Amino acid sequence: MNRIKNIFYRVRSKIAFYPTIISVTGILVAFLFIYLEQRGISKYLMDMAPGLVIENTETARTLLSTLIGGLISLMVFSFSMVMILLNQASSNFSPRVLPGIISDEKHQIVLGLYLAVILYNIFILVSIEPTDPSYQTPGFSVLIAIILTVLCLASFIYFIHNISQSIQVGTILYAIHSRTKKSLLEVLETEVKNAIDFPEMHDWAALKLDKTGYFQGALKDDLLDICLENELKIAFIIRKGQFILSNQVGILTNKSISEEIKAKIFKCLIISKEELTGDNYLYGFRQISEIGIKAMSPGINDPGTALNSIDYLTELFTFLMQTRDFEYLSNEDGTNQVRFIRNTFPEVLYNVLATYRPYCAHDIMVTGKLLNMLSLLRQRTVNSQQSDAIVLETDNLKKDMEKMIKNQRDLTQLRDGFHVWS
């Protein structure tokens, strides 16, 4: 089941997922109405509401042909809008935000609706075959085609509104922030149930990986079953999102295992050729940071976006501070069988600040915002390691700030902690 969920998630992120499903539905609906036409549904509707039925065969053909041509033009325009959106998001923000936009189900559903109605109209048009004077034009099916086309026009208006909102940087930042916050909350909820006991890894057997790519995690249920069946404990020394090489040591086991068990373990690993956001909250920090840094580039010059990105990062850091350094998989008794290593708060904080400092140390507003973020985080630390990391990053930021900013009033304001608007 865990493997099926992983496959579903990968397919779900593709832009053709919903359009394919909805298109197949449109074909099935067309065959259903062709069957109903054979059962005389148009004749029944003619008796009940003759004003709704198109009796003339040529008129029905012309109307369906017009609807098909119009919807194809509408679909081409909509697809062009999506491509423009992706190109603009990649240029102005970061190429890493594209998977989130592509997987937006609203865009997929609208495009799928266009394809479904086009296919429905085509099959209904093909089914019009007058062979004798008594032939009944499929008036009811044509009526449904008109209604579906009107629905497509309404969805097109919604599509234009939604796509104009999707390209706004505030919407993109909020979507990334919400997705990352949700992942962090799920991690915190899971950690409440799990203990932190795990044996010392002295003289454990090392396993060399058999693939090259980005390590995205493991099929947890399958991996846990392997551990329970073979009385095995596993510790990963590679991290989610890390690029790994074949023959690289990445896993430790508490005892030597056979090649068969090793192969089963490797089958549980999720290794892809490209970076996938998935449920890895670390990508959220990375994407928001990249958007903030891109906004500070001379070509874009948008410090306001950088300020907003720091606001979102501040809240995410408060949740990250509550997470543990390791993730565990436990059996029904609560005994930990598998341990994954995580990126700790000091590591993530350094990576974020290391990207902001070179581009923002000269800007008093952004630097003040970063100092304010560090001050707020210092009030919410869980342990001394986090406090030491915040103090160290604050000192590094102040050193860069003093090198880049020459105005003494600005330096005094920064030291005193002035209020930065956002």
Please give a structural write-up.
- It is a single chain.
- The protein has 422 residues and is an alpha+beta fold.
- Helix content is 64%, strand content 9%.
- The protein contains 16 helices and 8 strands.
- The strands form 2 sheets. A 5-stranded mixed sheet has the order 1-5-3-8-7, covered by helices on one side. The chain has a 3-stranded antiparallel sheet with strand order 4-2-6.
- Strand 7 (326-330) and strand 8 (336-341) form a beta hairpin.
- Helix 2 runs parallel beside helix 6 (105-126) and helix 8 (169-193) packs parallel to helix 12.
- It is flat and about 90 Å long.
- The model has no long low-confidence stretch (mean pLDDT 85).
Task: Please sum up the structure shown.
The chain is an alpha+beta fold. The protein has 16 helices and eight strands.
Keywords:
422 residues, alpha+beta, five-stranded mixed sheet, three-stranded antiparallel sheet, 8 strands, 9% strand, membrane, transmembrane, DUF2254 domain-containing protein, DUF2254_membrane, transmembrane helix
Q: Please mark out the parts with pLDDT under 50 across 5 or more consecutive residues, or reply none.
A: none
Q: Tell me the major beta sheet.
A: 5 strands, mixed
Q: How many strands in all?
A: 8
Briefly note the structural class of the backbone.
Answer: alpha+beta
N- and C-termini, Cα separation: 46 Å
* Backbone CA Rg: 29 Å
| Helix count, DSSP H or I runs of 4 or more residues | 16
Choose one word for the global shape.
flat
Kindly state the percentage of residues in helix.
Answer: 55-70%
- β-sheet strand percentage: 5-15%
Order of helices and strands: HHHHHHHHEEHEEEHEHHEEHHHH
Largest sheet: spatial strand order: 1-5-3-8-7
